[in-house]
Design goal:
It holds the Pfam family PspA_IM30. There is one protein chain. By secondary structure, this protein is an all-alpha fold. It has two domains: 2-159; 166-218. The protein has helices at residues 5-9, 12-21, 25-80, 84-158, 163-203, 208-224. The longest helix has 75 residues, at 84-158. The protein is rod-shaped, with a radius of gyration of 57 Å. The relative contact order is 0.07.
Amino acid sequence: MGIFKRLRDLTAATINDLLDKAEDPVKMLNQFLRDMEEDIVEAESAVAKQIAIEKKFQQQYLEAEEMVQKREEQALKALEQGNEDLARRALQDKKEHQARYDELKRQYDIAKANADKLRDQLGEMKDEFTKMKNKRELLVARAEAAKAQKQINQAISGFGVDNGAKGFSRMEEKVLQMEAEAQASGELVSKNRSLDDELEKLNKNDGVDDELAALRAKLAEKKQS
């Protein structure tokens, strides 16, 4: 029957294949379960109808069976009372009820077999639904774990080569450049200061030259006298 189609189609392999194509496996799993629940409700309705048919045939064939027994008893009683014509008519009616009983019993057996088959299929659907429901919990946990791992992997793959790391590298180069400029500036200041010191020394007179000149003059005067 068509109502059991998904029971055959929604195997674990089919679900896994569909999950590979799903953007959100959790949503897809929930949708699968909802579909299966709808199928189960539909199947339960079909089983209930088939059981009703089975019960109807059962009631009818039991009534026909009862009439067969009743007409036989009535025919026997009529015969005991010497009323063979009434006994014959009772047996004729019994024959009709017997034919009706045979047909109703046959229909009942068919209806019962169908009902039993549908009951078994419904049981399989419910078992499959329970398995898929339990598997959903595992798949959801695996999906969440995979999602978390993917996020971590993406973060790790970008760590050290993203803009932040590149920014650190640029700042390091800038600091090195600033240090070099500072060092060059210091050397230039040092050179300028050395030149200024030497030139300043030229202008400095500590008095030694003056004293030396005075001694020379004094010595020259002593030689003349």
